């Protein structure tokens, strides 16, 4: 059976080189869809209800959520080091415990200070349970044929908004936002704590250098390279634009006169688009070079964001654009998951991914707060989406300089 190799554009035959724990893949599918759905996608649906019921400023509640993402970016660097040496079980199980606890604090918060504290704790849970640790686990257990495993897990994760945005909206229609978060916390605990504790018990295998340009003397040469810095800048610009657009999609729809339920369905169907996009990534990787693929996908992210800015109606067309934006986001997720292995191998995947992802996660963390802050002076959410499109386009330009110099061949870049 032919499966995609980690190298872009190369197909390899899966020969079962190493033992792959069967329970890991379905387990991570379940926990990614649940974790993202509850900890991330429920917030943009519930935030209007939170601010209406409490009187807290939208900028303040969004800042609390942004703070969680900043914590996730910072903690993620340490999590990456731990994963390289010890594997994912302890980290992801601990994160699964923190997640429900944090949401119960959020749900019971009497004021903004406690509300923010709950989200800070949620940020640590995100760092330990979201895609980066799952990708590290799959990259090590499935290398060198891990693109297929990554694709399967991100297909499931892409359904997080499709399932949980409408579910959250339905719960919010019948319960307070506090009760809704309490119910979601119970779902998160039931599906992630035992799953991570029981399914991730397989021995942690040694790393292999299966990349184009593995750093022979450790991760530091890669981190100091121009390609690494430009790739970090690319993902930071793209991440800022992409996550700001996701979080502010519901306010954009509300601004245009649509209901919260209509907005939630548009967001959720965008998640379905992510699933479709991820099914296309392996084919895209076989027919494009690493740098060209990076620049093209980031540029398409800017294009779909611009289309949402320029299209006020009809609702059906806006939904189609949300789905197209989701298709691009789905590919971008896998692009980031394979960026390290495509360029520097798997030996230091956890640390390199943590360092590479930190600026992107920080930018994504600031984007909800920045979006809420900028929408008013810009004149609404449509001009905000136009600005986000320009930022993503800048990321497509920096992506052109993300090819490492070939080891021992100064001045010659890989295609």
Give a quick set of tags describing it.
single chain, 415 residues, mainly alpha, two-stranded antiparallel ribbon, disordered C terminus
Name the beta content range.
under 5%
Largest sheet: 2 strands, antiparallel
How do the SSEs run, as a string of H and E?
A: EEHHHHHHHHHHHHHHHH
Could you say which overall geometry the principal axes of the C-alpha atoms support? globular
Q: Counting H and I runs of at least 4 residues, what is the number of helices?
A: 16
Number of strands: 2
Distance between the termini: 28 Å
Structural class designation: mainly alpha
Q: Could you tell me the mean pLDDT?
A: 84
pLDDT < 50 runs, ≥5 residues: 1-17, 210-217, 407-415
Describe the protein.
The chain has helices spanning 24-54, 58-86, 89-108, 112-129, 131-142, 147-157, 160-174, 177-199, 220-224, 226-247, 249-255, 260-287, 290-310, 315-344, 349-378, 381-398; strands at residues 2-4, 11-13. It has a two-stranded antiparallel sheet. The longest helix is centred in the first third of the chain and has 31 residues, at 24-54. The protein is mainly alpha-helical and 415 residues long.
């Amino acid at each position: 059976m032919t499966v995609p190799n980690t190298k872009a554009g190369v197909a390899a035959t899966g020969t079962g080189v190493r033992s792959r724990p069967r329970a890991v893949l379905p387990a991570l599918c379940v926990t990614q869809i649940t974790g993202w759905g509850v900890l991330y996608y429920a917030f943009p649906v519930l935030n209007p209800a939170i601010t209406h019921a409490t009187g807290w400023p939208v900028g303040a509640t969004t800042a609390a959520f942004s703070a969680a993402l900043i914590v996730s970016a910072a903690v993620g660097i340490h999590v990456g080091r731990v994963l390289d040496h010890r594997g994912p079980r302890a980290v992801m199980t601990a994160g699964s415990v923190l997640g429900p606890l944090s949401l119960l604090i959020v749900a019971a918060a009497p004021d903004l200070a406690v509300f923010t504290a709950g989200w800070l704790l949620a940020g640590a849970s995100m760092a330990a349970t979201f895609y980066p640790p799952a990708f590290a686990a799959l990259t090590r257990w499935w290398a060198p044929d891990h693109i297929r495993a990554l694709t399967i897990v991100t297909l499931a994760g892409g359904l997080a908004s499709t399932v949980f945005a409408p579910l959250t909206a339905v719960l919010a229609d019948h319960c307070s936002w506090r009760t809704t978060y309490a119910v979601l916390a119970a779902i998160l605990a039931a599906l992630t704590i035992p799953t991570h504790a029981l399914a991730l018990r397989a021995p942690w295998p040694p790393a292999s250098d299966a990349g184009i340009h593995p750093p022979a003397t450790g991760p530091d040469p890669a981190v100091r390279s121009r390609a690494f810095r430009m790739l970090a800048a690319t993902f930071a610009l793209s991440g800022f634009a992409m996550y700001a657009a996701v979080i502010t999609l519901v306010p954009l729809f509300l601004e245009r006169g649509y209901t919260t339920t209509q907005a939630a369905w548009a967001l959720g169907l965008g998640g379905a688009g992510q699933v479709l996009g991820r099914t296309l990534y392996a084919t895209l990787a076989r027919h494009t070079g690493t740098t060209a693929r990076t620049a093209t996908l980031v540029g398409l992210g800017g294009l779909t964001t611009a289309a949402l800015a320029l299209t006020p109606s009809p609702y059906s067309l806006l939904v189609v654009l949300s789905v197209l934006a989701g298709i691009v986001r789905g590919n971008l997720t896998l692009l980031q998951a394979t960026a390290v292995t495509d360029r520097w191998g798997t030996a230091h995947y956890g640390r390199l991914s943590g360092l590479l992802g930190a600026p992107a996660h920080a930018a994504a963390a600031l984007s909800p707060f920045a979006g809420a802050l900028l929408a008013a002076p810009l004149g609404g959410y449509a001009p905000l989406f136009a600005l986000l499109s320009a930022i993503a386009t800048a990321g497509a330009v920096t992506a052109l300089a993300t090819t490492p110099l070939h080891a021992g061949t100064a001045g010659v870049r890989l295609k």
